[in-house]
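re: ur question from earlier - yeah i can do the single chain one, its not a big deal. heres the input i used so u can compare w yours
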Amino acid sequence: MKGELLSCAPWCAGRSAVRWAGVVPRKAKLEAPAPRDPGPLPSVRPVCAATRGLTRRSSSVSYALHEAPRRRKAREKSAQGEAGNMKKSPSKRAESPSELIDARIEDLGDWRGEMLSRLRALIKEADPEVAEEWKWRGTPVWSHNGLICTGETYKNVVKMTFAKGASLKDPSGLFNSSLEGNARRAIDFHEGDKLDEETLKALIRAAVALNKSSARG
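and the output i got, formated as tokens:
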């Protein structure tokens, strides 16, 4: 037994020396796992200037084929709508009141236009110095030292309204509308009505004389 202890002493001393030196025996040494092969990397296509230019050209071609025609049609439709509004609204194509009244008569294109034209002629015959005006967003007005009358057009009526009609004598009973007011009186003309031209011109002259007297007074 003593001989066995003595025989293993060198080996134990050597093993202890190895351990203190930091050397792990071969059996206890751990091996690190081998790195895994990640495989081939995905290929990345470089974007060059030519490719970017091609992309922009493709977008331009797509715009020219699809978006540009739609916008052009929209602009043409808008322009047609504005042209139609100009035909319907005489204020878009005329400047002076007389031109606006001419355009209104032309745009009506039926018995109302003919009636308004005839009333206009009678007013000018009764007072050659009368001034034509365009007020209230589309109403023909005739004035001399103040407002004389208007020429309004409705669906079934052409109305001639005298601003001071309540103060005018009307023995022939031309006034047939707006009879309840304290200032205005009106004459409604319907399709097929015949004009008492001389009586109407006398009424217009009376309205002019009333304006002149009011201006002096």
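The chain has five helices and five strands. not sure if urs matches, ping me
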